[in-house]
Amino acid sequence: MSLAIVFSRARHGLAAPLVTVEVHIANGLPAFHLVGLPEASVKESRDRVRSALVNSGFAFPDRKITVNLAPADLPKEGGRFDLPIALGIIVASGQLAEKSIEGYEFVGELALSGEIRAIVGEIPVAMACRDAGRATLMPMINAEQAQQVPKARIYGATHLLQIHSFLQSGQALPAIPALQTEPRKQWPDLADVKGQTAAKRALEIAAAGEHNLLMLGPAGTGKSMLAQRLPAILPELTEEEALQTAALYSIAGMPRSMNDWQQRPFRQPHHTSSAVALVGGGPVPKPGEISLAHHGVLFLDELPEFPRKVLDVLREPLETGWIHISRAARQAEFPAQFQLIAALNPSPTGHHDDGRASPEQVMRYLNRISGPFLDRIELQIDVPLLPKGLLSQQGVVAESSAQVRQRVLAARATQLARQGKANARLSAAEINQHCPLSTQDAAFLEDTIHHLKLSARSYHKLIKVARTIADLQELPHIRKEHLMEALSYRALERLLSYLKG
């Protein structure tokens, strides 16, 4: 047969769209044409495939070869199409039966010796092949990671000859090694933080409702310690959430270990990070820090040290849970449903009462954070200096992360049973349905909002926080005291009002 059709997968954001590799061998002067919007790395596959076939003992047709990667309007990049192109040539030249490749999809880069090298993004490929009802044959290194995809039929190989023997005569491929077990990451315990009872309470509320949290306080009061202990009190990822997270890390070339599979990611980018590093981008768009923190925590320490334009790019994903990246030739969409934890000092000197910074300097420092960005953070708390004698106090046992986590899990279970999601993810219509207020409480909250000059967005976020507080107390309805506690968590807005006033 002079025409062969082999199925493969491209990389487009988090998706793995189907690519049909059509190989036609015709009479004429020897030539190798590759069409279908291939980038430079794909065009170079002609030389890799030729050498891999010859060095593996296959006859390379001395005729006109045309390879079409369909659909033609989908950009193709990387070496992932080497393996399907080589198999297409083998089938089209009669060195392998056409029926032998039915029901399979192939991805992999070829070395000149015929060895199969790893690609990026094996988990989205495995998920897409599973949904299409076909098995996936990929490099062994990728197969180790892809075997975590439930119900996916994964085969791994290290050489082109292994695949040929498997398809032609049914010779078994090497067994996919089990993922190497590594010690599970142990998050530091909340009991290590002395004092800061109010901050721990806010951290518990943030964990229970998946709310964003901003901690304002002098240097050395434990803001970073608290943030780094948040993952220890969060519920584990569900199977579906773990798969989405692993897919994002897969296309970023950062595979997750099996032991950390259901642990929520914790990302802490440096304040010198660019907007592209945070939200993603590049010629071939890759996920940024906010997507790597999907279903997890994004911790921004020293918040005002981030450029204001960098922080403002987070406003849309904080609201929608998605980031849309558009480039001249590429567009991509990545999920970014993260929980933002931020920390900042009250002034550029690190303290608000040391006399070294004037009110104007403090205002310039705090104004690096825009109002619309701050408006999207539900919990804003003071983390003060510890009172004298607390550090040297002996025999005081604070609550451990395990104890706090039990209350968080109970509150999350209540929310999932009631509305199927965390309180922070409720829409305006769902707030009306699941977070009703009495007439008096609604009037009280609206009057307070107008007095503090807060937005309608803040109004809804305060109700969500109050709903979480009620859930932690296992109460079916929101009470006025829950609203008052939620209003108390607006520290930075109160400070800015004071400085302006």
From TrEMBL:
Pfam families: ChlI, Mg_chelatase, Mg_chelatase_C
Keywords recorded for this protein, A-Z: ATP-binding, Nucleotide-binding
InterPro entries from the UniProt entry: CHLI-like, MCM_dom, Mg_chelat-rel, Mg_chelat-rel_C, Mg_chelatse_chII-like_cat_dom, P-loop_NTPase, Ribosomal_Su5_D2-typ_SF, Ribsml_uS5_D2-typ_fold_subgr
Limits of the Mg chelatase-related protein C-terminal domain: 399-490
Boundaries of every Magnesium chelatase ChlI-like catalytic domain copy: 189-387
Superkingdom of origin: Bacteria
NCBIfam families: PRK09862.1, YifB family Mg chelatase-like AAA ATPase
Family annotation (PANTHER family): COMPETENCE PROTEIN COMM, MAGNESIUM-CHELATASE SUBUNIT CHLI
Identification of the protein by name: YifB family Mg chelatase-like AAA ATPase
Organism: Alkalimonas cellulosilytica
